[in-house]
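lol ok so funny story. i was supposed to be doing the assay writeup but got distracted and ended up predicting the structure for this chain instead. priorities right. anyway since i did it might as well share w the group, maybe its usefull for someone
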Amino acid sequence: MIRYKLFTNQGTREKNEDSVGELDQNGRFCFALADGLGGHGKGEVASSIAVRSVLQLFHEEGEKEDFLRDSFYSAQNEVMKMQQRSYEFADMKTTLVTLHVSDGYVRWGHIGDSRLYYFSHGNVKLRTLDHSVPQMLVKLGEISDNDIRFHEDRNRLLKVIGSEWDEEDFDLGKRIPLKNGQVFLLCTDGFWEWIDETQMEFTLRQSESVEQWMNSMVEIVTTQGSGSQMDNFSAIAVWVTKE
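and the output, tada:
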């Protein structure tokens, strides 16, 4: 049984440039979340195109083995196509993270700094690595992982949808068997910057439903971000439970 909760909020910004979406198709699930880059213009259009194209492809080809890889190319092609239609959309870009549940397996992919966290037995087992300057500095050993959240270059992304790709710029996670008790969190940087992994784990262990967990995390995010210029913040929580 897959239980899930979607959330999005514009924070203190004039527009919400995040997009979230899901599709349940005969017991196969696809979740997609994107964060449009406002500094490049029309970020809300880019993010909505990316999410819509992933879900549309899932509707048409979700059973295919290469669906996940194809979905990133589809999102890239649709955003680039819109860029070419009008100068107004020429600079729009977006992150993208998606989770695919099908035939007893789970797989995910991402590009940019929107993240996926994978929890097992109440603990973070894995998170995607941002395609950003601070994440690169962590890899080089110049800063710690905790320094990413408020690093001065945190918004400098190295890979996004809407920029020309020299190669396959997105990352795909390995397919893992679906198991009772697995938990996944997809979220934009406006969400994860105000809640750390310890708080995610604590609220998860205290929650009896996916809705309660999401509400608890949102409360932390809004409290921690209060008084600041809060970015849009969005998340998708997915629980794997027994019938």
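The two ends are 6 Å apart (CA to CA). Residues 43-61 form the longest helix (19 residues).
back to the writeup now i swear
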